[in-house]
Amino acid sequence: MQKQARIFDFIINGQGGGVKAVGRENIEKNINYIFGDEVGTIATINGDQLDAEFLSWITAHKNSNRILMVGGGDGTILTAATHMIKEGIVFGIVPLGTQGFVKKLLGLPPDYVQAMKSYKDGEFSVQALDVGRVNDQAFLYGLMLDTGSVQIFEAREHHRNGDMGSVIKSAFSSTFNILAGKKLQMRLDDTTDIRARLASITVNAMTPRANTLEDFKQGGMKQVFGNMFARKEECDGKMVLYTHSGRLDKLLAMGPKLWNGTWDQGMDKICQTQFNLSSDAKEIPIILDGEIVKASFPMKIDITPSALKLYRPG
Asked: Does residue 216 share a domain with residue 97?
């Protein structure tokens, strides 16, 4: 790829946490400053317009040499991926989300300005990521199935919207459901009964890292959360089902394990290329790559190795 011939197009989720913190005008100003005459188009739009914008870009530039850069968090990257996988299109990311697991997998700097400079100033390699699917909905990282975990993310959404009353209510409900609420009941592959207070499936095995006070001072809870749910960059093409039976003594012991990077040792784990889950429930809310969505039973969850290809600078 000849550097002088590159044209970068940007599609930015204007409702992403990073965009709200920095401001749309500042982000577009930085894009123009860093990329200069290599900027093609910049579309900063609301999240509900992303699907149409990605389809429009594909129609206009599918067979061109233009480079698509997608700005947002994991939910935005996932939306882009659902369209680009079908077309075999490689794209880069501008990390502007709340968490940014995919950003970590690509080894991008945490600051979006530095991340953009790494694309502008360097050459690209292409990194392939495994893609999971639950009833044909794609995911790049994982999904959480239990009520308590869903309510944690509900609290996050309320916090984004400044509704502190609802934050407290969701946090309280989450704690209750994890410690004493009704267990999630499912059947795996028509052979194994599962009754759990915590249940999640990840594309790759988790390798949590121990937290330090320095992590918290430098990155706050965002860094701590990232350490808790760090994962391997390479996978053998399988997914991992984590469950926790919910015994109170074991749940209480999870607190320090979350901090010191050993929580995965307290979970039951099953590693497979496909999970078929059934339940008496018809539909439940789940967390899919950090976003709350609905999923119906029976759930077929499988993996396509190396299905998504992203530009990785350097």
From this structure: no
Residues 69 and 170 in one domain: no
The token pair at 158 is: 């309320």
Distance of CA 96 to CAs 47, 53, 114, 181, 283, Å?
13, 18, 12, 35, 31
* Residue 57: C-alpha distances to residues 51, 86, 102, 211, 275 (Å): 10, 14, 22, 41, 35
Number of H helices and number of E strands within the chain? 10, 16
Q: Are residues 100 and 160 in the same domain?
A: no
Gap between the Cα atoms of 50 and 46, Å rounded: 7
pTM flag (> 0.90): no
Tokens 């918290």 correspond to what residue? 216
Structurally, how many domains does the chain consist of? 2
Question: Which tens digit of pLDDT belongs to each residue from 169-189?
Answer: 777 777 777 777 788 999 999
Q: Nearest 5 degrees, angle CA 120-CA 123-CA 127?
A: 110
Task: Give the range of the structural domain holding residue 112, as residue numbers without chain letter.
Answer: 3-122
